Description:
heterodimer; A: mainly beta; Folate-binding fold; four-stranded antiparallel β-sheet; two-stranded antiparallel ribbon; 13% helix; B: 184 residues; alpha+beta; Gyrase A, domain 2; 2 domains; six-stranded antiparallel β-sheet; 3 helices; globular; Sarcosine oxidase subunit delta (chain A); SoxD (chain A); SoxD_sf (chain A)
Amino acid sequence: MRLSCPICGERDRREFYYQGAALARPEGEAWDAAWDDYLHNRENPAGVTRDLWQHEQGCGAWLVVTRNTITHEVLGVALAAEAGA
Amino acid sequence: MAELRAETPCAGLVPVRVAGLSLSEVAPGRMTSVAPYRGQERALSAALKSAHGMAWPAPGRMTGREGARAIWFGQRMALLVGPDPDPALAAHAALTDQSDGWAVLRLEGAGAREVLARLTPLDLRERVFEQGHTARSELAHMAASVTRMGGDAWQVMVFRSMTATLVHEVETAMRRVAARGIFP
């Protein structure tokens, strides 16, 4: 598996660290179902998923990777700072 | 009182010579990581140019010349190698001395690319990784900086504490490449 880092170009999977689902942080600090979902509830999709990865052994950037868990296609890689999590 | 004696990171470990390949230590002088403050990239590049004669390196590139270089070192970071950093740079970037933190080695000779290819997943082919290109990647599972200094000359950096492991791994790879007998 190879990922195209927007900064470094195409690199081997060994350079990257997998964090988990890329989720938007809920607004506000009051506890509600949105925070519950953000912290605890995860989809396990057969198909397209958005994950956070870090280019740990490369430039260090956090990335949002869109990929397909059935076909293993990597559909897109963007800087998390620009894509929003 | 104890007399402390300064030692370079690779003291006693190099040079290593195998067939036409050599691994030696580079004395880089002062090394400073330069990390621009938000929105200061352009001003920093100008300051770097007037103080040290080199532009801010684009990702994966090295600027400057022998004795004063800027090596791209990660997202929004470069390593200034050689000169003491001009105080004017501090207005635009966070400067941190790294001089004693990294081992700097030079691998050269026919087959040097094949040696590194055994240790890192980087694409090192001639037309992809050209002279003056640099990358942060893993080398024998260590976080490294790899720079192509010339045709068959490469600079490899790892944290100082990993020097002995690096030399061991590179020397092993050098022997294995040499054993194939395909490089004169």
